[in-house]
Amino acid sequence: MANATGVAGEAAAGSQLEPHLLPVLSARLSAIVREMNATLMKASRSSVIKNSKDFSCGLLTFDHRLLSVEDCIPIHIAALEQATKPLTEFFDDIRPGDAFMNNCPYTGNSHHADMTLCVPVFVDDEPMFWTLSRAHHADIGAPIPTTYLTEAATIYEEGVHLPCVRIQEGFKDRADIIRMCRTKIRVADLWYGDYLAQVGACRIGERRLKELTERYGRDVIKTFIREWMDYGDRMMAAEIAKLPKGRWRFENRHDPVPGVAEDGIPVNVEVEIDPDAGTITVDTTDNVDCVPGGLNLTEATATASCRIGVFYNLNPDLPHNQGSADRIRIRLRENCALGIPRYPVGTSVATTNLTSRLIAAVASCFAQIGTNNGMGEFAYSQALGEAVISGNDQTRGGLPFVNQVFIGYGGGGASHGYDGWLSSGAACDGGQMQVDSVEVVEGMYPIVIEERGCARDSGGPGTWDGAPGIEGTFRPLGGAMTVYWGSDGDVTPAKGVAGGGAAATSGNWRREADGTVTTLPAFGDATIAADEAVRFRACGGGGYGDPAARDPERVLRSVRRGWVSPERARDVHRVAVSWNGATLDWDLDENTTADLRAAL
Amino acid sequence: MTYELCIDIGGTFTDCLVEAPDGGRHIFKVPTTPGVFQNGFMNAIETSAEGFGMTLADFLQKVDRIVHGSTVSTNALVERKVARTGYLCNAGHLDVLTIREALPKPVFDWRLDYPDPYVARGRTFGITGRMDAAGNELEPLDEAAVEAAVAALRAGDVEAIGVAYLWSISNPAHELRTRQIIADMWPEVPVTLSHELNPIGREYRRTIATVIDASLQPIVSSYVRALTGALEAAGYGNDLLLANCMGGMMPPEELIRRPIYSVMSGPTLAPMAAQQLLPGRNLIVADMGGTTFDVSALREGAPVVSPEAWIGPDMLGMAKIDVRSVGAGGGSIAWVDAGGMLRVGPHSAAAVPGPACYGRGGTQPTITDANLVLGYLDPDHFLGGSMPLDRDAAEGVLTPLAETLGLTIEALSHAIFTTSNNTMVGLITDMTVKEGIDPRDSSIVVGGGATALHIAEIAREMGIEEILIPRFAAGLSAFGGLISDMRREEVASQLHASDAFDVSRVNGVLDDLYAAGKAFLDRAGVPLERQRFDYVFLARYRYQSWEIEVPFTPTDGHITEADVEALVAAFHDMHERVYSVRMDGDVVEFTTWKVRATGVRPGRITPAGTPAATSRPATPKLARRVYLHERSGMVECPVYFGAELRPGDYLDGPAIIEEPTTTIQVPQGARVTLDSEDNYQMLLGDVGAPS
Fold first, then answer.
1. Which has the closest alpha carbon to A337: A74, A145, A489, A150?
2. What is the pLDDT of residue B11?
3. Which of A109-113, A521-525, B382-386, B602-606 is least confident?
4. Given a cut of 90, is residue A232 above it in pLDDT?
5. pLDDT class for B547, splitting at 50, 70, 90?
6. Distance from CA of A154 to the nearest CA of B (A)
7. CB within 8 Å: A3 and B337
8. Count of domains for chain B
9. pLDDT greater than 60 at residue A7
10. Quick one: pLDDT band at residue B319, thresholds 50, 70, 90?
11. Is residue B316 in some structural domain?
């Protein structure tokens, strides 16, 4: 309510649009995107999409300006406009009924497993919009059955690439393209079902945009688009004007990856805020050259990461359109692992690992500007709780299976006034992924999840704590299974800021038949026998502020949830709690707490 | 010569809708009495008795059915004032209620605190013992651990216990044995088993429903006993029926056994009213009150059911009739954001202080203030003239906003009106289109006092042609209760793939479900000729995990080998309808089977829509100045008094119809006719350009 009546920005003076049409039409676009998302999720087949919501839809103007996105995977949506830009360069015969598939990192896409379907929307023969759906497919036809190929140094080791390929014509599939994909992609029926779900989403968006434009008229819609972008621009300028002027740096480091980056990959960012000009500049040029593996960012994910790190620190109510995005100036360098990859270097893992490092670096960099800004780092982790599992299902006559599971995520970083969000996942996820139900996964694949829960004391302590990571153990049922994972956070966990502590590292283990537990590397693959199991712990989030200043009531709540041990409450937060069997709950011991805190 | 009553307890008022022996319906309102709702309940009956010139005792002698929708359990859940509950789960899975399915959050917003689990970890006990998906026992139940947990829970003074183990839907042995152990040690404590309450796969949903149900046991049973006690003391001995969240009624003892069915039950009565008013149709039911706008929908007469109802930070876990809310009511506040855009809501002036024009200290401009300035509300006839509105106050709070935006006060008010309407358009779109219901093939049924002012523009925006506004719109839920049926849903999970379909096992399940449903109706005293059973299955394509609901009609309660193909075809059709795609060659997995047992209420009401024998133009009572967007200003507009209209009367917009508890805005181009059953039917005519 702080910015309710009386506190108005620069009104839309000289507006050509009736005053209600800005809120009305922008809300209508949001509803269209929500309808697209719902269509895609419900009709899709793979658990990547349907259970964990690893997909996103959005609307662009035909001249490639971000018009509307809804709550979706942020790394998908924050630079969506790059996915269509090459289309109008490649094609001079775009027609109604066309659909183009773009999953190529060198034509504006995020990474090879995110297939981005782009449908041009014509109204009265005039091309006006693009509807997009981007979905992470369970398989993309890479040499090994995973979509995250850490060691793939070039695109020749990746899956099928469709660099802006016309996949529908006259509202019908092009059979040759479909045949090509079905030949190369594992469990092709699954892929095709997901593809159809994407088509359904884009076509529904197309129909709705046409109806909307026909109802209001092309001229009104064009005026609206102009004012909607101006509005995003004004909102963003007003938000940036609240921040101090200056330039800050932040650094973190991705874990070592054998054969790709033996010493890990340092990540440096510089953030410059100019409240007078209303711009924030994010510079990632001071980073290493592309590495010989799949960790390199694509231009789309590097751009999106910089924007996301900024947006995480600003009013979430901002319109996320081209108007607001363009006030974030981004400096990227060619042939840089955190910039623009040089063809044909590999980018298979561009949406997760370095992306999460970069987003967190930008988001956490804000902690240095003071005024209660910034966040503890997000979990770095794609531990075995997010493994790609494959094998033959002996409970179903040896039926082959391959899919990614989403059993446990890392925790969110803390910010001023708020603890980190449980299951936020890494910074690239924005807390948008659903967690698999144990029963859904066990019902679909031959595995048993022996245990899953919040890993106690794994969040970074602070005045506000980072969220704990999720830990668990699972094993194959009836036969062996192969697991692929690429963790990060096993060596360098999420750091705290403003005096807050770091989270626990992530970890991956194998439990052998005789009960021996051995540590698995942060990146790898393994075949797990029927009498073995794997165990994982996802990284927690970083803390914010001095842990000994944490409100004792918050400490108590964390103990009651099982997130913090009584020992850590005492030693780190200087708060004493005691168990009460009569109420079956922990109580605060105020006297001892006062003594503990006085002793500081 | 009997009366029937429906008593609907709302936040502010308790409504009693009475159907008199002559078929006439009368509504009485008394203040709600929080904490002791049964007092307001009895006051409502007493006030009704007075209205008919009788003593309470005499009146109750003539009443043969009382239907009641209460918010007791909903309030208890929202305020978390529920019984202290213990929860037994699998060892290693203590955080099912904390992790949930990962909670939805706005993507760029981290200024949030993660909510506590529904049952505190201290009262959560992990028990060794495990089934797999096929129901094989991987690990036996650790009975000593159960005994230790029960002893601790008893010492810890819990009032109810929920038990939810993984795959109890495939093999319930561990849950059943656990209940036996509890009963042996502590027979008085109420216990809910997950596989009995909510046999669906997805442990969080089954578990949350289980612990919610357990936690409501003491509250609902003491409330129901207080009600029945008060009614008995007043000499009432006939039927008392309580609303459930499936849009039907249950006898009190049934609701005590399954208290979760009472959660959010009141709002589900509105779609049931609509179902009877316009049977067999695609309908959208819109209900706008002071703080929220509620929407529900019916597909070809069947209410849309959602498995994903939320209550605070948790799912209900049970399928219920889908009623969705958005914070858009008469009290929603208009403001201008930092980018210069007009916004309406989500903040609300609520009931206190309320809109500025109420004169109770409201200082923020609200939708109601805008409606007053636009002439849609009459300051002297609001709520039948019982509450004069202050137009100057409304203008006073709207003026600064108008100046900021450089608009006249009327143009601003219109912008507020239209912006708020569009919030509701968004909600209706979300609700219907996702369910495969095209709004353009649907009609709207109006409930709630504030809806009829807004609904015509909403309908036009969505391309909807026809609106039904019952005279009892403001009491649509109570009306729905009055006319509703007895209903209960029996559910079982049993997986059958279309390439390995076992007809005899399915028939076994259908037999069990039918028997359970029939037993319910028999216990409730529903005679055979009024018992009805509807069958539904849930299915998906292989490797999908979201099922969709498909109705089917077995012959004599059984299917044959020959029917399987038709079941598969019905699934393909429904999938295409809901999601626009079908995959004819793919394996279909049938996961869940349901039987809805209905005890049809005797003496059904005449549906709306009967045209009057003759029609004639109505005569306006007076005229007042109303804002017309087409003419960009205030114009003289005829005003009709509903009390003076008779069946067959019609009128054309622009016009206003005043009813004691609602005001109808009739836009230009629309025609309203009063039908034979006292409902206003509005036809919007040619859809004009957007306003």
1. A150
2. 67
3. B602-606
4. yes
5. confident
6. 32
7. yes
8. 2
9. no
10. confident
11. no
**pLDDT recorded at residue A4:** 33
Domain span including residue B194: 78-220
> Is B202 a domain residue?
yes
For residues A505 and A379, give the distance between their C-alpha atoms in angstroms, rounded to a whole number.
9
pLDDT in tens, B607-621: 676 666 677 899 998
Q: Where do we find the tokens 């609509």?
A: B274
Is B411 part of the contact surface with chain A (CB cutoff 8 Å)? yes
Instruction: Please state the three-class secondary structure of B96-150 as a single string.
Output: HHHHCCCCCCCCCCCCCCCCCCCCCHHHEEEECCEECCCCCEEECCCHHHHHHHH
Domain end point (choices B220, B235, B267): B220
Which pLDDT tens digit goes with each residue over B194-240? Answer: 999 999 889 999 999 999 999 999 999 999 999 999 999 999 988 89
Is residue A320 helix, strand or coil? coil
**Spatial separation of the C-alpha atoms in residues B580 and A130, rounded to whole Å:** 20
A196 pLDDT higher than 60: yes
**Chain B closest-CA separation from residue A599 CA (Å):** 30
CA distance B128 to chain A (A): 10
Confidence of residue B687 (pLDDT cuts 50, 70, 90): very low
Name the residue among B421, B424, B391 with its Cα closest to residue B409. B391
Q: What is the ipTM of this complex?
A: 0.93
pTM over 0.95: no
Distance in angstroms (rounded) separating the CA atoms of residues B317 and B207? 8
- Do B496 and B505 meet the contact criterion of CB atoms below 8 Å apart? yes
- For A33, phi then psi, to 5°, come to -65, -40
Q: Can you read off the two tokens belonging to residue B31? A: 């203040």
| Beta-bridge mates of residue A452 | A472
B-contacting residues in A 292-351 (Cβ below 8 Å): 308, 311-312, 314, 316-320
Residue B199 · residue B493 · CB < 8 Å: yes
Closest residue, chain A, to B151 (C-alpha): A581
Q: For A375-380, what is the mean pLDDT?
A: 95
CATH code assigned at B192? 3.40.50
Buried b (16+ CB within 10 A) or exposed e, A315-333: bbebbbbbbbbbbbebebb
The alpha carbon of residue B616 and the mean position of all alpha carbons in its chain are separated, in whole angstroms, by 37
The H or E element spanning position B552 is strand B548-552
Q: B-contacting residues of A 228-287, CB under 8 Å?
A: 231-232, 234-235, 238-239
Of B175, B197, B220, which residue is a domain's last?
B220
Please check whether residue B506 lies inside any domain of the structure: yes
> Sorting pLDDT into bands at 50, 70 and 90, what band is A2?
very low
Which tokens in the block code for residue A220? 């009104």
* Chain A nearest-CA residue for B92: A451
3-state secondary structure of B86: strand
Task: Please judge whether A423 and B103 are an interchain contact, meaning their C-beta atoms are less than 8 angstroms apart.
Answer: yes
Q: CA of A163 to nearest chain B CA: how many angstroms apart?
A: 26
Tokens standing for A394? 């002996």
Q: Inter-chain contact B338–A7, Cβ cutoff 8 Å?
A: yes
Chain B contact set for A235 (CB, 8 A) = 337-339
Reported as a single tens digit per residue, the pLDDT across B403-423 is 999 999 999 999 999 999 998
DSSP assignment, residue A105? Answer: G
- Decide if pLDDT at A6 tops 70: no
Query: What's the rounded mean pLDDT across residues A433-444?
Result: 91
CATH number at B505 reads: 3.30.1490
Q: CA-to-CA distance for A152 and A292, rounded, in angstroms?
A: 8
Residue A419 pLDDT exceeds 60? yes
Backbone angles phi, psi at B87, to 5 degrees: -140, 125
**Which of B102, B418, B541 minimises the CB distance to A434?**
B102
Do the beta carbons of residue A77 and residue A65 sit within 8 Å?
no
Give the CA-trace dihedral at A94, A96, A97, A102, to 10 degrees: 40
